[in-house]
Amino acid sequence: MTKLIINQLSKTYQNGHRALDEVSLEIGKGMFGLLGQNGAGKSTLMRTLATLQDADAGTVFLDGLDVLKQPQEVRKVLGYLPQDFGVYPNVSAHEMLAYIASMKGVRSGKGLKEAVDELLARVNLYDVRHKKLGTYSGGMKQRFGIAQALIGQPMLIIVDEPTAGLDPWERNRFYNLLSQIGENTIVILSTHIVEDVATLCRDMAIMGQGKVLLTGKPQQLEQTLLGHLWQKPVSRDELERCQQQLSVISSHFHAGQLHVTVLANEAPDSQFISKPPTLEDVYFTQL
Ligand code: ADP
User: Fold this and answer.
1) In angstroms, what is the span from residue 18 Cα to ligand 1's centroid?
2) Per-residue pLDDT tens for 232-287?
3) Three-state DSSP class for residue 150
């Protein structure tokens, strides 16, 4: 059974910032969501898992492979879609994938061409495979990014902040694509967008200030809040009063009206109504 086991991983940057603080996680096959605000340490963790930077302490094992000590071996079974996915604008998708495939040790010749064509079809870029990458839209570039991460049938795929900048239509296509590959591979999806995790992931963790704050299955984590969330429409002044007196987890506008959500064992007053928990509520209780 393929597993990624991260144990007590720590990293302090040269400026003294502790980006990872004894992070421990066990991640099996399927889609794993890593949620956290900007600055939580997600990218640092992703880059470390992708063998692109060192840790100060701790271990990472992918089955029998020591990720920190055997980076060359790990790269053969790793697919990585980084946050800033630069493409060479004057190269076609087909040329670029063939190049990456040969670097990753996919044998050249007919096998390679077939593998590349198959991947391009899978991400819906076959018809535009000879177009230059510079002419691709944001969504097309992201799908190309997935194709290059899938080359060589990796055991572990790391996707860092994938849906930033995608329109709803492209985002939906991207979700569909990711969910198809999740079954037999470990896919780690790092994001600050709760909906990405709620839509796609079977297991998840929330990170904050370099630490793992919470792990579990999205639905189970939501269940823990059942019966403890209360909501009501408020004015700005009332919101301030709530913030002073109650455990407010969020406030947001809905159809032009401000609503407050509080955590409590029973309704704080008769205007509050019970709110069914969402993953966003779980996230907000951790911030
Ligand atoms: P996230 O991906 O969750 O936004 P990052 O891992 O990018 O978080 O960053 C975690 C913290 O580490 C941030 O406060 C960031 O400013 C800091 N950081 C990231 N990279 C470096 C670096 N190369 N040097 C110094 N500090 C860094």
Assistant:
1) 9
2) 999 999 999 999 999 999 999 999 999 999 999 999 999 999 999 999 999 999 98
3) helix
- Using a 10 angstrom Cβ sphere, with 0-12 exposed, 13-18 middle and 19 or more buried, the burial of residue 167 is exposed
Tokens standing for 144? Answer: 């190309």
Residues 104 and 76 sit within 8 Å (Cβ to Cβ)? yes
Tell me which DSSP letter residue 73 carries.
H
- Counting residues of the chain whose pLDDT is more than 90, the rounded percentage is 70
d(CA 50, CA 142): 18
| Residues within 6 Å of ligand 1 by CB | 13, 15, 17, 19, 36, 38-44
* Ligand 1 atom nearest residue 38's Cα: 4
Order of strands, sheet of 248-254, starting from the edge strand that comes earlier in the sequence: 248-254, 257-263, 229-233, 273-274
pLDDT at residue 219 above 90?
A: yes
DSSP 8-state class, residue 215: E
Residues in contact with 204: Cβ distance below 8 Å, sequence separation at least 6, in sequence order: 32, 33, 34, 35, 197, 215, 216, 217, 218, 221
179: its two tokens: 């969910």
| pLDDT tens-digit series, residues 47-98 | 999 999 999 999 999 999 999 999 999 988 999 988 777 778 899 999 999 9
Homologous superfamily of the 3-216 domain (CATH) = P-loop containing nucleotide triphosphate hydrolases (3.40.50.300)
- What residue segments make up the domains of the chain, in order of their start? 3-216, 223-285
Pocket test for ligand 1, best of 15, 35, 43 (most atoms within 8 A of CB): 43
What is the CATH topology of the domain spanning 223-285?
Answer: Alpha-Beta Plaits (3.30.70)
